Known about the structure:
This protein has two helices and five strands, in the order ααβββββ. The chain is of the alpha+beta class. The chain has one domain. Strand 2 and strand 3 form a beta hairpin. The longest helix has 51 residues. The model has no long low-confidence stretch (mean pLDDT 81).
Amino acid sequence: MKHRLSQSGGFTLLELLMVVIIIGILAALALPGYFRTSERARAAEAITVMGQIRGSVQRYCMESNGTAPTGYGQLDMDNPTTIPQLSTRWSFTTFPTVGCSPPVFNMTVTRSSGPCSGSKVRMDTSLSPSPYLYTWSGPCA
């Protein structure tokens, strides 16, 4: 009598279940870090745009003999409220508080969509070449 040994090359249901559980645990550990990192990148995007606005205001002050601009239309850059990639994420509706003499630049932008809606990035600085300071506050800061 011949005995056949059945050797299947597949995985058992228990082994597959364990793999799914391990992948789920790893995803649960990784996703919060991913969301924090992506929000930090979005905050850096807002800081970059505010820095561009600051530079444009500084150029306007130098070219206009100390007269401060009153709106985005006077600056030598695109209006951030009309750029779709920015306006869907950040609210740039309020023009920054600026002054040419003494030099001052204060601006706050608010996260307008997503899970971190309501987060604020604020930049306070003088228009001098010194580095600007910013604060990030809100649910995802």
